[in-house]
């Protein structure tokens, strides 16, 4: 979150400055939290110890990550559709059934994602979940 003394930030698209408001801070916190969701997916693939802890004690595995309660709950329920609606990337979400099949199967993952994806996105999700 931006420090309290910061009054404006640079817009990357045009280099102009915009005032920091309560809404800007909320959006920044949401983006940082989304980082935590994507980090979980990355760690499932890259860190065998994290993967093992997620399989045996997911509450402890997630405790130190920057997640909102909503995100944490969705991960624990394997609610990939909710995570996608929050902004998580489908490729990273596809790591969940790949490395935690006891939490959610590949077929259940695809079915849940179909509920939120446009038809043209569905084939990509199915291909990513195989990968």
Description:
By secondary structure, the protein is mainly α. The protein has one domain: Protocatechuate 4,5-dioxygenase, Chain A (Orthogonal Bundle). It is 65% helix and 5% strand. It has nine helices and two strands; from the N terminus they run E-E-H-H-H-H-H-H-H-H-H. The chain has helices at residues 22-46, 48-56, 58-63, 69-76, 80-86, 90-93, 95-99, 106-114, 119-130; strands at 8-10, 17-19. The chain has a two-stranded antiparallel ribbon. Strand 1 and strand 2 form a beta hairpin. Helix 1 packs across helix 2. The chain is globular. Residues 1-12 and 24-32 have low confidence and may be disordered.
For this entry, give a set of tags.
mainly alpha; Protocatechuate 4,5-dioxygenase, Chain A; 9 helices; 131 residues; two-stranded antiparallel ribbon; single chain
Compact overview of the structure:
The chain is 65% helix and 5% strand.
Share in β-strands: under 5%
Low-confidence stretches at least 5 residues in length (pLDDT < 50)?
1-12, 24-32
| Overall pLDDT score | 78
Question: Could you give a short account of the major beta sheet?
Answer: 2 strands, antiparallel
Proportion in helices: 55-70%
Main sheet: strand order? 1-2
Helix-and-strand structural type: mainly alpha
* The named CATH superfamily: Dioxygenase LigAB, LigA subunit
Order of helices and strands: EEHHHHHHHHH
Helical segment count: 9
**What is the CATH architecture annotation?**
Orthogonal Bundle
CATH topology: Protocatechuate 4,5-dioxygenase, Chain A
How many β-strand runs?
Answer: 2
Radius of gyration: 17 Å
Distance between the termini: 35 Å
**Overall form:** globular
CATH top-level class: Mainly Alpha
């Amino acid at each position: 979150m931006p420090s309290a003394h910061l009054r404006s930030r640079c817009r990357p698209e045009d280099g102009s400055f915009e005032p920091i408001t309560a809404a800007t801070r909320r959006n920044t916190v949401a983006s940082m939290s989304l980082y935590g969701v994507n980090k979980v997916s990355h760690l499932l693939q890259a860190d065998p110890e994290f993967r093992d802890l997620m399989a045996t004690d997911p509450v402890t595995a997630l405790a130190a990550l920057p997640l909102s309660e909503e995100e944490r709950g969705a991960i624990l329920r394997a609610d990939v559709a909710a995570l996608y609606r929050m902004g998580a990337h489908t490729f990273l979400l596809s790591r969940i059934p790949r490395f935690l099949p006891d939490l959610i199967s590949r077929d259940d993952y695809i079915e849940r994602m179909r509920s939120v994806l446009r038809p043209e996105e569905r084939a990509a999700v199915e291909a990513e979940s195989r990968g």
